[in-house]
Design goal:
globular; 9 strands; disordered N terminus; 129 residues; 12% helix
C-alpha cells in the first residue's frame, strides 16, 4: 500500500519578532496549519528543560489559527498542538530581554526521533560549532 499522507503543500513566511525578524515558517500538511521552527540545543530553557515561545509569537500563532507547533532539532522533532501548548505552558513574565515567554517542558511535547539521531556521540556536531 502506498503512503497517501499529504506532505507540505504550502510554505508561507512565519510570525515576526518586534524587530521584524521572521521566526520559523507556516506550512500546510494533511489539512493542518503548522508552525515549524529549526531550533538548537541552546534554545532549551535549562531550569525547566523546556522549549519557549515569546508571547508575541504565541499571539500571532493564535491569530493565524495554527493547529500544531513543530520544533526541529538535530535529534528529531518536538510536536505539540497549539491548544495543548496554551493549556499546559507556563507564562514567565519579563523573562527574555524583558519579554514575556511561554515555556512548556520537553516531556510534554511528542518527540519524533530523527533519522540522524542514531549517530555515535563522538561524531555528532555540537550546536556551538
Amino acid at each position: 500500500m502506498k503512503n497517501t499522507q499529504t506532505k507540505a503543500t504550502c510554505e508561507v513566511d512565519g510570525p515576526r519578532l518586534p524587530n521584524g525578524q521572521e521566526v520559523g515558517n507556516y506550512i500546510e500538511e494533511d489539512g493542518l496549519s503548522i508552525w515549524e521552527r529549526n531550533v538548537k540545543r541552546k534554545h532549551i530553557l535549562r531550569f525547566l528543560d523546556a522549549w519557549t515561545i515569546n508571547e508575541l509569537i504565541v499571539r500571532q500563532l493564535v491569530a493565524d489559527c495554527v493547529d500544531e507547533i513543530r520544533y526541529k532539532t538535530c535529534e528529531g522533532i518536538y510536536v505539540v498542538s497549539l491548544e495543548d501548548f496554551l493549556e499546559q505552558a507556563t507564562l514567565l513574565r519579563a523573562f527574555a530581554c524583558d519579554e514575556d515567554v511561554y515555556a512548556l517542558p520537553r516531556n510534554q511535547w511528542h518527540f519524533e526521533e530523527g533519522s540522524g539521531s542514531g549517530q555515535l556521540l563522538l561524531f555528532m556536531k555540537r550546536d556551538e560549532e
